[in-house]
Amino acid sequence: MFKPIIVILGQTATGKSALAVKIARKVDGEIISADSRQVYKGLDIGTGKITEKEMKGTPHYLLDVADPKRKFTVAKYKNLAENKIKEIIARGKIPIICGGTGFYIDAVTRGIVFPEVPPNHALRKRLALVSDRVLMLKLQKLDPERAKNIDPRNKVRLIRAIEIAKALGKVPKITEVKPMYRFIKIGLYLPSDKLKKKIEKRVEKMFKDGLLKEIKKLKKAGISDKRLKELGFEYYKPTPEKVIQETLKYAKRQMTWFKRDKEIKWLDASKIQKVVLNKQVLRPLA
């Protein structure tokens, strides 16, 4: 029987990456990122991507695996993540999935099988003329569950979600295949006031570290303003105030998604140093 797979999840700015590294060093683990934007090359500062120094020699996977000019799908992520899990286990190590993209995490831990829906270019052309607000209203009617965890300003994702729902002729029914692994899910949270302060500090550091220079570099590489907007609010005409506000909204959507999963053991991130390696958390790995 395989050893359990650890999953570190939770809201942005709660210290998931640091915790994953700490646990990996304790249990001889290797880390698989579960972040829908950190898969892209060149999106480093704006996504809070872990640095080589912060990795402390721990292997990390599914970072910088996609060209930002092209959309990376959750189906692609699932395939790559499952292959990495097998490779890590074959080496006698423990896989640790770490990230805040609930859809990516569910794809692996729940064994979701995604319907293959080809692009409907005519539909996309029509929907491209519609505002993101109207697109969100359409998606809420077609697929209320998907609408709960989607960026309401990301037209590309909204259009794709609508495209899938319309192609299936009904609200998409998620098909699941029972995974062959057992997952230990550890969720990090912070009280709202502490989370707000952490986000404010992170955004301040983001601009100080050169977010605007990163955006210029992406533009120089041929990334259009339209694509930058699709890649997230940090990359389209960002200001500290705007990024803080949108990050708080995103954190709220993340928690809405994760709260549905009753398998998650929640830990207060502000007290994580005291509980991270206690027997209660790591006993299932024995």
From TrEMBL:
Keyword Manganese: no
Cofactors demanded by this protein: Mg(2+)
Reactions catalysed: adenosine(37) in tRNA + dimethylallyl diphosphate = N(6)-dimethylallyladenosine(37) in tRNA + diphosphate
InterPro entries: Dimethylallyltransferase (IPR039657), IPT (IPR018022), P-loop_NTPase (IPR027417)
GO term, biological process aspect, one: tRNA modification
Family: Belongs to the IPP transferase family.
Record protein name field: tRNA dimethylallyltransferase
